[in-house]
Amino acid sequence: MKNRNESKTVTLDVRPTIASGSDPFSEIMAAVGQLADGDILQIINTFEPIPLINKLQAQGYKSWTERPEAGIIHTFFKKELAGETAEALPEVKASDAVTFQQKVAFFGEKKRTIDVRHLEMPEPMVTILKAIETLDDDHALFVEHKKMPQFLLPELQNRNYLVMFNEIDSDHLQLLIFKAN
Fold this sequence. Notes:
By secondary structure, this protein is an alpha/beta fold. The chain folds into two domains: about 10-80, TusA-like domain (Translation Initiation Factor IF3); about 95-180, Translation Initiation Factor IF3 (2-Layer Sandwich), CATH 3.30.110.40. The chain is about 30% helix and about 30% strand. It has helices at about 15-20, 25-35, 50-60, 95-105, 125-135, 150-160, and strands at about 10-15, 40-45, 60-70, 70-80, 110-115, 140-145, 160-170, 170-180. The strands form two sheets. A four-stranded mixed beta sheet has the order 1-2-4-3. It has a four-stranded mixed beta sheet with strand order 5-6-8-7, with helices on both faces. Strand 5 (about 110-115), helix 5 (about 125-135) and strand 6 (about 140-145) form a beta-alpha-beta unit.
């Protein structure tokens, strides 16, 4: 039996899988299934896998990222040891259409607009996260999207952003993302 203080790191480079057009999710989950308490899974990718981070945090894994060079992101997952608890993801609440339109008008010229409806997953999330990195604190990001980005919402809240939305129809949603005061 392994000593509790011993841990091993399993490294998984998913860039070739993604480059081939495949989704590495089943490969990642198979590696997660092999982790013992205290073991670390290192995922090498070109973007931060926010949906995976949220999913594994909900299952009791700690995570952190490192950027050793431009365009390369290492995301680490460590299985919680007995007695440790994972933080619950925050809840994101909806906004009504009138309040949404008032807030859009409030930001006026201080908003950037992007349309991610044509992008395949996970590009909408990656595009939105890149856009907010350069967004001034007093500006908003107005996003045209196909659907509610469930995995993005908790990440935005964790980064101290508020999100409002306006549903146009079943395939078109507008989001307004801005810094909380």
